[in-house]
Design brief:
The chain is an alpha/beta fold. It folds into 3 domains: 88 residues, Alpha-Beta Plaits (2-Layer Sandwich); 112 residues, Oxidized Rhodanese, domain 1 (3-Layer(aba) Sandwich), CATH 3.40.250; 58 residues, no CATH class. It has 8 helices and 15 strands. A 5-stranded mixed β-sheet has the order 4-1-3-2-5. The chain has a 4-stranded parallel β-sheet with strand order 6-10-9-7.
């Protein structure tokens, strides 16, 4: 049985998010889908896994609601166990920016869209522009566009910090990129509000570019928020480059793990050799420093 993972979002006004949540829950449970969905008054952001048939049926069901017509669905191969359960929640935002009272509506202000084909042309024709990766550090450590700017942020809520790091590009052509596009809708709009004069966003996100141009321009693997952790296209090809580095020994690796200390659970890259040395358990190479809640903790002795 072939499994498929669907990734999508849409910024559209939803009067009653709870009603949409109920509707989504009923459809997903009936089709046997698992995954995550966030619904807010500003729209929907979701990723689900199911059989090819059930995902196809889900798309038909969603598009019965005119508000969701025209949604860009990104499909990739699944494993059948990429998500442990089905989670559908109502929140204030489908992507948390942490901008306080700054209410950005991507339908009113956002960067201009660039298709994967257009970006490919920009790169091949050596157009002057700057790719700014809007993902977190642990995401772009394992894969990113060549020569892209990789701001040092730990969470998308740190977006204001990016502005300071790239302030010198305010009068340059800037292209924002992220996994599927949902973060760049707001991030590019935020840059516009901060005085950036020529801002673009990669339509469909990095995953769409990788699918169209595997192992070209984007190097390494794409970090994803499901059981696969990372994904790539034709990774056995000689053109595929491993750019991730083991946090313990600096050898090339794309193997993400969580610290075995339950209080820490930090996410980092650990190669198979280092894992084998610790009997398959991974602990922070430099010792655990902060808990998941930001409190200082004592390192685990190994």
């Amino acid at each position: 049985m072939k499994y498929v993972i669907i990734l999508f979002y849409k910024y559209v006004h939803i009067d009653d998010p709870e009603a949409v949540k109920k509707q989504e829950m009923e459809v997903c449970e009936r089709l046997g889908l698992r995954g995550r969905c966030i619904i807010a008054s500003e729209g929907i952001n979701a990723t689900f896994e199911g059989t090819r048939e059930s995902i196809g049926e889900y798309i038909k069901e969603l598009e019965k609601d005119k508000r969701f017509l025209g949604t860009h669905f990104k499909l990739s191969f699944g494993t059948g166990n990429s998500f442990p359960r089905l989670s559908i929640r109502v929140r204030k935002e489908i992507v948390s920016l942490g901008l306080g009272n700054c209410n950005l509506d991507p339908n009113k202000i956002s960067g201009k869209r660039v298709s994967p084909e257009e970006l490919h042309g920009w790169i091949k024709n050596r157009r002057e522009f700057y790719i700014v990766d809007m993902r977190n550090v642990y995401e772009h450590k394992v894969g990113h566009f060549e020569n892209s700017i990789l701001p040092l942020i730990e969470n998308f809520r740190d977006l204001p910090k990016i502005v300071k790091q790239i302030a010198h590009l305010k009068n340059k052509t800037v292209l924002t990129v992220c996994t599927g596009g949902v973060r760049c809708e707001k991030a590019s709009g935020f840059l516009v509000t901060q005085g950036f004069t020529d801002v673009y966003q990669l339509d469909g996100g990095i995953v769409s570019y990788m699918k169209k141009y595997p192992n070209e321009d984007f190097r390494g693997k794409l970090y994803v928020f499901d059981g696969r952790v990372t994904m790539g296209f034709y990774t056995g090809d000689v053109k595929h480059k491993v750019i991730g580095r083991c946090d313990a020994c600096s050898e090339q690796s794309e193997n993400y793990v969580n610290c075995a200390n339950p209080v820490c659970h930090r996410h980092f890259i650990n190669c198979k050799n280092c894992l084998a040395k610790n009997n398959g358990e991974a602990f922070c190479p430099g010792g655990c420093v902060l808990s998941r809640h930001g409190r200082k903790i004592s390192p685990v002795q190994i």
